[in-house]
Amino acid sequence: MKLKQLIYSKKLAQIIGVFMLTCFLAYGVVGQVSARKIMPTTAGSQQVGTWQYAGLVRSKANLSQTKVLQGSDGQVYVQIGIEALDDVSHIKSKMRTPTDFVVVLDRSGSMESSGKIDYARQAIVSLLKQLDASDRFALVTFDSIVETPIGMTTVTSENLTTLITKVQSISTRGSTDLGSGLEQGIHVLKNAVGKKNQAKRIILVSDGQANVGITDTVSLSQIAAKAVPGEFVVSSIGVGLDFNETLLASLADYGTGSYYFLENPSKMETVIAKEFYGASDVFAKNLKIQFNLASGIQVVDVSGYPVVNQGMSKIVKPGHLYRKQTKTIFATLKVPTNNLYSEALGNVILSYEIEGKMHAVKLIDNDVTIACLPIEKKKDVIASIDKDTFGEAWASNNYGQFMKDSASYIREGKYEEAKGNIKKFKEKLSGAYAAAPSKAIADQMQELDEFEGDMETELKAGSMSGADQKRLSKQLHYEGGMKQRKK
Description:
- With 487 residues, the chain is of the alpha+beta class.
- The chain folds into three domains: 3-22 and 389-484; 34-89 and 289-349 and 375-385, Immunoglobulin-like (Sandwich); 99-280, von Willebrand factor, type A domain (Rossmann fold), CATH 3.40.50.410.
- The protein is built from 13 helices and 20 strands.
- It has a six-stranded mixed sheet with strand order 7-6-5-8-9-10, with helices on both faces. Strands 11, 13, 14, 15, 18 and 19 form a six-stranded antiparallel sheet that branches. A five-stranded antiparallel sheet has the order 1-2-4-16-12, covered by helices on one side.
- Strand 6 (136-142) and strand 7 form a beta hairpin.
- Helix 3 packs parallel to helix 8 (268-279), helix 10 runs antiparallel to helix 13 (466-484) and helix 11 (415-435) packs antiparallel against helix 12 (439-461).
- It is globular.
């Protein structure tokens, strides 16, 4: 399959996924830590691998392994499954929850191209026609200037025509002060008064780079993070091929919402409607995963979500759980490997709120041990691996992160670095096959060879256009993020 075809095909995800399956073979000595206590390895906690039930939600955690090799990279994976049960007979509110919905719309000059502003106006008008008197709507626009054409307004049949007229009057102009636009959207939603118990949602729509005001991703993401304490969500839509996908994805991550890549702006209507109705379909609010781990054990990554320090704990907030939704989250832990030991891993607690009542379940308890063994006990380490959990972690989370890293190489035109990365992963893949031969890995090795050959051919021919480069990088980044959360 040629690279141009891959740019438009989900087959790309299957081929690149192979890269990440076996990085567990990479060895690297970690920094010095204090000597660790040798203790007998006990049986695993009853919680590990077992569904825990609380408030019509079930959840469980699986460990990829309980032993690591001395001098190895020390990576251990925790797969967390969270599921809203189908039985909603005890949920008091079965009707759609009234919603406060804010659209933060980029009206900079670039939104004129490909009819993006036209599709945005059309999508907003379509949504307004679906709202009723229990809902409220606000529109914030930004270019070099931030305005609020529609403050938080109850949508009624009497004012619908006026609201539509305001939306249709929005035209393009100026640059892109995305940060000020987002801050104003949050301000409007936080300060809305007069109604209680409304579902709350912000969706930001942009096609360009933040080039006025606050422009760096870290600072802009911290603005989005302001939504979390206020119990509302910030989602984002990147339209076209010229926006900053790293920024818009980060806004959604910190705002515990969803990120969408829409090359075709005609799909905007569907996405905005999905976000609106999703806001009222929350089953369990404010999911929080708390890692209380033994000294020296690091939380490296949790499916790309922000990891926040809280005392000695690490906190991750993966948003809300919707009706009939299943979430799968992968945590990558790094345990020390410079000394031999066997000790308690620590505990992992999941909490959430349903109808005002807090629930908490201990997914991993303190009786689960992790051991570091000498090289002569490599077979014992391999025997401790839960192949399903280990494979899922590499095929989903690690695969997704690799796709996002690959997107950065391609976006920046660093093709030689990208090809070098492929070669490194080919070596690791071969090592994985040698350690645990399987038809799946053999097939993926063959596909990887074909992909590498196609990339080499296309780059030599110089046939990847600027648009193809942008499209491929955005597709890789978007699908990588989806893979990390198994969406």
